[in-house]
Amino acid sequence: MEQNQEPISYHGYLDLVRLAHDAHPQWRAGQALFNVLHRIRPDLSERVRATKLDPFNRDTRNPAFLNFVKENW
To answer: How far apart are CA 19 and CA 48, in angstroms?
Structure first.
């Protein structure tokens, strides 16, 4: 994120995920969720990387992942 830029909200994050998924249709939903989070909140993405919450390889983890992200935004 550039300096002096408004911080993004959780709902803004979800909007960016939708845009990224549209731009990269080969990504599964979990990949889009993780990739966008890693870009804008690497602090949060590193907390879930390679854990039971990481949705990158399993979309079934998306709900728990999103709960974690929302609670820790």
So the answer is: 22
Contact 29, 40 (CB under 8 A): no
- 34: closest CA among 3, 9, 64? 64
The per-residue pLDDT for range 31-48, each reduced to its tens digit, is: 999 999 999 999 999 999
- Separation CA 33–CA 54 (nearest Å): 10
DSSP 3-state assignment of 1? Answer: coil
Mark 33-56 as b/e (b = at least 16 C-beta within 10 Å). Answer: bbbbbeeebeebbeebeeeebbbb
The answer to whether 35 and 27 have CB atoms below 8 angstroms apart is: yes
